[in-house]
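Onboarding guide, step 5: your first structure request.
Type a short instruction followed by the sequence, for example:

Predict the 3D structure of this protein.
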Amino acid sequence: MANILMVVSAADSLTMKDGSEHPTGYWAEELVVSHQTLTGAGNTVHIATPGGRKPTVDQVSLAPESAGGEERAQGFRDYIAKIDGELAHPLVLADVDVAAYDAVVMPGGHGPMADLYQDADLGRILVAANKAGKIIAPFCHGPAGLLSATDDDGAFTFKGRRLTVFTNEEELGGGTGENTPWLVEDALKEKGAVIENGAAWSSNVVRDGNLITGQNPQSSENVAKEVLAALS
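The system replies with C-alpha cells like these:
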C-alpha cells in the first residue's frame, strides 16, 4: 500500500478584487471524497498544511445546495468530524520529506489561491516529487498550488504539461464571480501549462505522465481513482 501526502490550504479567507475578505478554506466534497477513496483502498494518507495549522472547511461547501442535498452534506460533516484528530494536527509542510511518499494530492476550495500558490515549501515538495516521478494530483482550485513550483532559474516546473483546473466559466458563473481576485486557469496558461478543460460542472480528469488533475468538485472521486490506478 502507498503513503500519500494530502496538502491542504490553511487559509480561511481570500482577499477579493474589491479588497473585501471572502471566507474560504478547503471544499468539503473534495477533501472528504478523495481522503475516503484513498484510505478506503488501504493507503495511508497524511494531511499537511502551511505551518501545520488546522485547515478550515468552506462553510458554503457544507450547504445542501452545494453538497448535493442535506443527506450528502451531513455525510461530509460526519466524515470531517471522524478525521478531526488528523485535521487538528496536520504535518507542517516545511518539515515534510517527500521521499517518504508515493503521491501528493491537493484538493481545492479557494484556499489554495490565498496561500499554496506561492508557498515555497510546497514548491520544494512538488519539484522534488516531479523529479522523482511521483504522482502529483491537484484538482479544482488545487492546481493553483502548482504555481509554487519553479526551478532555480525561476522556470515553471509544469510548463508544457497537460492539465485541467476549475475553469474561468465555472469561476465566473458559479464560483466567486467577477470579484474573483485572479483566475487560476489564466494564471496556469500564462505560465505555459496546456489546459484541457471539459464541460462545466462535469467530471473531467487529465493525466499527463505523473501529473493527474481534475477540473472541479465533481471530479474528486475520479481523480482519486486515477491516483489508485497509477499507484497499482
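Each response can be followed by summary notes, for example: The longest strand covers residues 44-49.
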